[in-house]
Amino acid sequence: MRYLHTMVRVKDLDASLDFYCRVFGLIEVRRMENEKGRFTLVFLAAPADVEAARDNKAPCLELTYNWDTEDYTGGRNFGHLAYEVDDIYATCRTLMENGVTINRPPRDGHMAFVRSPDGISIEILQKGEGLAPAEPWLSMPNTGAW
Ligand SMILES: C[C@@H](O)C(=O)SC[C@H](NC(=O)CC[C@H](N)C(=O)O)C(=O)NCC(=O)O
Ligand code: NI
């Protein structure tokens, strides 16, 4: 068994692609339009995963856009998407310069959280920091956004 992708439904595909690709840096590797089902699927990969993802050998984020307006509520059991970056401060600066709120700033240089246009939580982790910072991350004050 291997992990393939995480699917999230998006209300505005253009706004989501602008956020995930132009601002955050993910790359579209394939898309499917389904006329009968009236939906579009777009698969996005992180730059380091793109070549493997094109061969379906690396995990992707699958955006599902239903052409007919739907309200997506609930899903509290969904937590977040996590990405490792080379420079967490540069990443957060680019996000902020493009109007994205840094809900949990990288005070410890290790971990930050933002949200997509649909409110999907995205964890940004500094490369080389492993999964847990020197200080237990639970001690980080929660800004109340969670
Ligand atoms: C391509 C493969 O990775 C899929 O996930 S296709 C799964 C399929 N998706 C859809 O039908 C998209 C439109 C649908 N209205 C929706 O919003 O899901 C599917 O079976 N989806 C059901 C689901 O719960 O994921
Ligand atoms: Ni899928």
What is the topological layout?
Layout: E1 5-9, H1 13-23, E2 27-34, E3 39-45, H2 50-54, E4 60-66, E5 81-85, H3 88-97, E6 102-104, E7 111-115, E8 121-126
Parallel strand pairs: 1-4, 5-8
Antiparallel strand pairs: 2-3, 3-4, 6-7, 7-8
Bound molecules: the ligand C[C@@H](O)C(=O)SC[C@H](NC(=O)CC[C@H](N)C(=O)O)C(=O)NCC(=O)O and nickel (II) ion.
Rg result: 16 Å
- Total strand segments: 8
Give the CATH class of the largest domain: Alpha Beta
The fraction of residues in strands falls at 25-35%
Structural class: alpha/beta
Largest beta-sheet details: 4 strands, mixed
Number of helices: 3
Share of helix, binned: 10-25%
User: What ligand molecules are bound, each kind once?
Assistant: the ligand C[C@@H](O)C(=O)SC[C@H](NC(=O)CC[C@H](N)C(=O)O)C(=O)NCC(=O)O, nickel (II) ion
Unreliably modeled segments: none
The helix/strand series, from N terminus to C terminus, equals EHEEHEEHEEE
Keywords: Lyase, Metal-binding, Zinc
Protein name: lactoylglutathione lyase
Family: Belongs to the glyoxalase I family.
InterPro entries: Glyas_Bleomycin-R_OHBP_Dase (IPR029068), Glyas_Fos-R_dOase_dom (IPR004360), Glyoxalase_1 (IPR004361), Glyoxalase_1_CS (IPR018146), VOC_core (IPR037523)
